Amino acid sequence: MEGVKIIKRPRLKKPYLVVAWPGMGEVAFKAASYLVEKLGASEFASVKPEDFFYLAGSIVKDGLLSASELPESKFYFWKNKGGLNDLIIFLSNAQPDLARAESYSKIVIQVAKSFKVEQVVSFASMPQAMDHTQAPGVWFAATSQELSSNLKKLNLNSLAEGQISGMNGLFLGMAKREGLDGVCLLGEIPLYTIQIENPKASAAVLKALSKFTGIRVDASGLINQGHTMDEEINKLLEFLKLAPAAAQPIGEEDIEKIKKSLNQLTRLPVSVKDRIEQLFSQAQADMSKARELKVELDKWSVYKEYEDRFLDLFKKTGEKNN
Questions:
Q1: pTM of whole model > 0.85?
Q2: Using an 8 Å Cβ cutoff, are 59 and 68 in contact?
Q3: Which of helix, strand or coil describes residue 44?
Q4: Given a cut of 50, is residue 245 above it in pLDDT?
């Protein structure tokens, strides 16, 4: 198949296709990434990036410059042993230039049709005048009246008017022309947090996906991340409220702590974060685990975020020996 690298061709029964790429609040990308991880979905194909992406800069890390890599666009499959429908997940860590988006979408649809996909689901965010502590609602836009009627029965909010821009709108429009039913599930996010990852909104769209497809997904990991994220946003907002009247302005160190905390919470997959916490607990009882912990932190490039806790392990060991 032109433009696609096929690793293997799984036999799937009436699969749904879920598509996602980065966007506001990282609602879609985080939801689909979590879905792949939680279900244990397996990669089976990828879109060749050189046809749709180009390098636009370099990466500087630890004072050294290196060439960046082209984005990845991968297909995953999951077999639903206890249900009627399997699942294909298409996950890309970047959106192609809109000039190439139509050709890009055609390839994804071509793969979907080769597996006899009949319905497509995309994820997106919907900025709203709401507080970050509120539970996000989910809206939908469907490509057929029948599908829209079924979704309304699930107590989801129908987007009656408006526009879905970018890849989500383009892709679903093209899918409809190719005879595939489609729906975009949009998770609500506060207007003032559109540049911060929103795990609660990602969890909300996965819950809506479960209602729609009958495929159960435990989103508790995302919900827990969301609660912690709320606490960090509260701290940031409190700083901003107090700044004009405070004797001391917000220091760079305080801002960096908040940024690091938010970055740490959102960059790591849930399973990796849990693994790091487990290694910290083990290292407190057995310092031989500290080496394994350091390897894990370096692997994910988060040692700086955990540095104080890591060094504290050695301080506590020294105190015990005194």
A1: no
A2: yes
A3: strand
A4: no
